[in-house]
């Protein structure tokens, strides 16, 4: 039997009586899907356009959040040899920078892959699972999920403003 795919915008509503993990994952997936909705349908020029004094762009937000997914899930829960958590503010800021040839489609695909990998890694552990984190000492998977909801939602707010400035589109759907 084929698995039914649920529209991520409905996930928080569906999980409204779910357990803690279902609720946390539903809200994180909701915000992840909003990031992608904010860049879909934009030209490469519009997605890379700077509309605020900082270097933040819609495409840059997707690129940055791809690193954030890798950092909080892969680097902490399943690091390979030599892979370390990015702690430098400078490196985090640089992750917004677009390289020549970066396309919205490629950035969105990389983000979707990073999110899928994050889901796979998180599924291996209980919410109480604790890992070392270089700046905080230790963090639980529960804390990582809540932090990622906050981080992703904050950037979705930025994306919403940038998209509105680009073509007037607003909202979650």
From TrEMBL:
It holds the Pfam family MST. This is DinB family protein. It comes from Micromonospora zhanjiangensis.
């Amino acid at each position: 039997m084929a698995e039914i795919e649920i529209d991520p915008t409905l996930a928080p509503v569906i999980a409204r009586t779910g357990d803690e993990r279902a609720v946390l994952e539903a809200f994180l997936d909701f915000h992840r899907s909003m990031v992608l909705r904010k860049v879909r349908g934009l030209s490469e020029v519009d997605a890379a356009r700077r509309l605020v004094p900082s270097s933040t762009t819609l495409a840059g937000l997707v690129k940055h959040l791809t690193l954030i997914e890798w950092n909080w899930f892969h680097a902490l829960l399943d690091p390979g040899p030599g892979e370390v958590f990015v702690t430098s503010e400078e490196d985090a800021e640089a992750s917004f920078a677009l390289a020549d040839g970066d396309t919205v489609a490629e950035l969105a695909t990389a983000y979707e892959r990073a999110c899928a990998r994050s889901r796979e890694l998180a599924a291996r552990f209980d919410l109480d699972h604790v890992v070392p984190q270089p700046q905080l000492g230790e963090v639980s998977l529960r804390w990582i999920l809540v932090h990622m909801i906050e981080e992703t939602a904050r950037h979705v707010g930025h994306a919403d403003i940038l998209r509105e400035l680009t073509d007037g589109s607003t909202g979650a759907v």
